């Protein structure tokens, strides 16, 4: 019998639709897989066995009645623990929300349910999505299925690890500075940051409101496109939501034709700090695009050099404001409330106990950057750099259709290696941050293994805002060409857990 956990989402949906298998059988296969291996991987913070089986039974019941169902009905999914889910714990990887049960669904969660997608549970993440390794989770790190001693990326390492270990065919992540694409790169999976505002942020616990963006994670480009279509669209509950049609991402993923497309190689995304094997695989990808009929040119975006510095002023500034709501008085953890302390003392004790070191570091940095006398020098200057980066993108997209680069400068590093060096950790997002600052769409997909360590390397594709379909067009072409060259999907080379 076919191992149901090894199928793509599209294949799984087709088997359910044809009656070859049922949604319940598929859900049980994945829940059994989670029970068998997740103790080693730690991709999940909460597995909703009863909820998943109930959702699967509902899909089977509707199909039996002849009701029209979505293209992903019955397909399991791992949901990053940053989206509120009614009746299911939502912790954001933090002790300050340990055990919190939301009374409502995020818009994205509701869209998944409406599409008949079966939510298996909530995945591990860096606390409040602050990190590049999932080591900042209050509930312990997640291992990379390629090598459990290494990081699965961050902040959405639980989602990427669930995919790479075949615990789920689909997952959801969020991307503030690369937290969908970076985990995809180091686990050999596909991750997409849609155009800012294309997927609702309502019910997504905020880190940095002008940067945060939910998006699809999958094992193939087509699966990501199908999930993208299911979760995207205007939401009146989100004031930053774009009121525009969803680009034809599924059609683009099925075509995969790049003949005549102009592809720009970003000059600034190379040089010191880039692992030799990463650049070797990236150069292979560029040559592959030429072979497929694309025109490849080098473009310069000089302001990208300042993106990392600008990001680490803007994001902490916004997080210091957003996290002010976690005061121990309204919901979540409350410490020191013995009747003798003031509300201010309870709030201070709660935050001390509930927030981890990285969250405290960013709150302090952001509060300082926004303080009187420093606002213009730091936060204001960072926003000016953001404008320059946006202009660099506009000039580049005047010459080319998409930009390409390595997704991350290195492959997955060992757990603990950068724990005491925040700056080294921040450099993991060097290539991904500019797209967040400008609000553009971007994707990471596998482009091979680095010869030094045999670990996955990601190719990043960046498209203009609202041109998300270009990502899928290029991604599908590259994926098909590499799969033909390798003779199988890259994940088939991963160790068996």
UniProtKB/TrEMBL annotation:
* Pfam families in UniProt: Amidase
Q: Which UniProt keywords apply?
A: ATP-binding, Ligase, Nucleotide-binding, Protein biosynthesis
The UniProt entry annotates the active site at 80, 155, 179
- Catalytic activity, reaction form: L-glutamyl-tRNA(Gln) + L-glutamine + ATP + H2O = L-glutaminyl-tRNA(Gln) + L-glutamate + ADP + phosphate + H(+)
Q: Which positions fall inside the Amidase domain?
A: 25-471
- Domain of life according to the entry: Bacteria
EC number(s) reported in the record: 6.3.5.7
Q: Which InterPro entries match?
A: Amidase, Amidase_CS, Amidase_dom, AS_sf, GatA
Q: Sorted alphabetically, which PANTHER family does this protein's record hold?
A: GLUTAMYL-TRNA(GLN) AMIDOTRANSFERASE SUBUNIT A, TRANSAMIDASE
The record describes the protein's role as: Allows the formation of correctly charged Gln-tRNA(Gln) through the transamidation of misacylated Glu-tRNA(Gln) in organisms which lack glutaminyl-tRNA synthetase. The reaction takes place in the presence of glutamine and ATP through an activated gamma-phospho-Glu-tRNA(Gln).
What family does the Swiss-Prot or TrEMBL record give for this protein?
Belongs to the amidase family. GatA subfamily.
Describe, as the record does, how this protein assembles with itself and its partners: Heterotrimer of A, B and C subunits.
User: Mind telling me what this protein is named?
Assistant: Glutamyl-tRNA(Gln) amidotransferase subunit A
Taxonomy of the source species: Bacteria, Bacillati, Actinomycetota, Actinomycetes, Kitasatosporales
């Amino acid at each position: 019998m076919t191992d149901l956990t090894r199928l793509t989402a599209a294949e799984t949906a087709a088997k359910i639709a044809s009656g070859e298998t049922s949604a319940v059988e598929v859900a049980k296969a994945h829940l059994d897989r989670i029970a068998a291996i997740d103790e080693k991987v730690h991709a999940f913070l909460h597995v909703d066995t009863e909820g998943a089986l109930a959702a699967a039974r509902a899909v089977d019941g509707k199909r039996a009645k002849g009701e029209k169902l979505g293209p992903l009905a019955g397909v399991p999914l791992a949901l990053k623990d940053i989206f509120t889910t009614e009746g299911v714990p939502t912790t954001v990887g933090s002790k300050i929300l340990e055990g919190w049960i939301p009374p409502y669904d995020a818009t994205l969660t509701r869209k998944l349910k409406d599409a008949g997608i079966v939510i298996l549970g909530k995945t591990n993440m860096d606390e409040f999505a602050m990190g590049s390794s999932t080591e900042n989770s209050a509930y312990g790190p997640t291992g990379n299925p390629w090598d459990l001693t290494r990081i699965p990326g961050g902040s959405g390492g639980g989602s990427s690890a669930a995919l790479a270990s075949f615990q789920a065919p689909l997952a959801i992540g969020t991307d503030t500075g690369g937290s969908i694409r970076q985990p995809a790169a180091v686990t050999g999976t596909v991750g997409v940051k849609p155009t800012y505002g294309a997927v609702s942020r309502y019910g997504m616990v905020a880190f940095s409101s002008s940067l945060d963006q939910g998006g699809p994670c999958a094992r193939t480009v087509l699966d990501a496109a199908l999930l993208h279509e299911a979760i995207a669209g205007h939401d009146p509950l989100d004031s930053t939501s774009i009121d525009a049609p969803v680009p034809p991402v599924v059609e683009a993923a099925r075509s995969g034709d790049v003949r005549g497309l102009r592809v720009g190689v970003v000059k600034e995304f190379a040089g010191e700090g880039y692992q030799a094997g990463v650049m070797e695989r990236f150069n292979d990808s560029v040559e592959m695009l030429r072979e497929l009929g694309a025109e490849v040119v080098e473009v310069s975006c000089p302001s990208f050099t300042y993106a990392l510095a600008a990001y680490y002023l803007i994001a902490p500034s916004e997080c210091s404001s957003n996290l002010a709501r976690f005061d121990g008085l309204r919901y979540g953890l409350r410490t020191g409330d013995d009747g003798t302390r003031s509300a201010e003392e309870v709030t201070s004790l709660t935050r001390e106990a509930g927030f981890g070191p990285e969250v405290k570091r960013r709150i302090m940095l952001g509060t300082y950057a926004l303080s009187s006398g420093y606002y213009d020098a730091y936060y204001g200057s960072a926003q000016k750099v953001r404008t320059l980066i946006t202009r660099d993108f506009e000039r580049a997209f005047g010459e080319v259709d998409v930009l390409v680069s390595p997704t991350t400068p290195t492959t997955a590093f060992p757990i603990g290696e950068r724990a005491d060096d925040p700056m080294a950790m921040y450099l993991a997002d060097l290539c991904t941050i500019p797209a967040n600052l400008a609000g553009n769409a971007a994707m990471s997909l596998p482009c091979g293994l680095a010869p030094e360590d045999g670990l996955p390397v990601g190719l990043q594709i960046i498209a203009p805002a609202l041109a998300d379909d270009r990502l899928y067009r290029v991604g599908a072409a590259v994926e098909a060409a590499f799969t033909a060259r390798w003779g199988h999907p890259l994940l088939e080379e991963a160790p068996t857990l």
